[in-house]
Design brief:
Elements (H helix, E strand, L loop, with lengths): L10 E6 L2 H13 L5 E4 L7 H5 L6 H27 L16 H23 L23 E6 L5 H8 L4 E3 L4
Antiparallel strand pairs: 1-3, 1-4, 2-3
Helix pairs in contact: 3-4
Length: about 180
């Protein structure tokens, strides 16, 4: 995903020989005003997110929303069933006693957070996408083994500068606008 939050579906892509060349090219692209950059690497490159300007992940917020929803839902359901609809006088305790509701509330909060994180990762990483136009570039399969690739979206205003920086090895993909 680009820093703008959408995938590069049409643009220019180039293979680079190693991690250092990838970082240098990404820095050169950013210095020339290119903002819509996407990188494909066989493993995580530590500085790459900062260099291409990728936004910080909002997965923690999604997990918090899922945990809050799961916890509130579990507590509300327990209160509805045990204290309101079917109150039982057991040992003179009031129908709405907080302590027995705590374990299920915590478990459901964890479950809600976990389900939201899994759904968010699958949706945001586009793992269910089986094909993208960049896959048609000759040699792009090396991105999963040993290749380092940079793609620039054709919608970027500085696309001409990107073609200069990426050099003669750059390939167009996805057709022209």
């Amino acid at each position: 995903m680009t820093p703008a939050g959408d995938a590069v579906v049409r643009g220019v892509v180039a293979e680079l020989p190693d991690e250092a060349a990838l970082l240098a090219a990404a820095r050169a692209l950013r210095a020339s005003g290119v903002t819509r950059i996407e990188a494909y690497t066989p493993y995580h490159v530590e500085e790459l997110d900062e260099v291409i300007g990728a936004p910080r992940s909002r997965l923690a917020v999604l997990a918090a929303v899922g945990a809050l929803g799961g916890g509130v839902g579990a507590y509300a359901l327990q209160w509805l069933l045990d204290a309101y609809l079917y109150p039982i006088d057991a040992g003179g305790r009031p129908p709405h006693m907080v302590l027995p509701f705590v374990p299920i509330t915590i478990e459901m909060a964890f479950l809600g957070a976990g389900l939201c994180v899994v759904a968010g990762v699958l949706w945001r990483a586009a793992l269910v996408r089986l094909w993208a136009p960049v896959f048609e570039v000759p040699g792009f399969t090396s991105a999963t083994r040993a290749g380092f690739w940079l793609a620039v979206d054709v919608r970027d205003p500085a696309i001409a500068a990107a073609r200069e920086v990426l050099g003669a090895g750059a390939h167009d993909f996805g057709g022209q606008p």
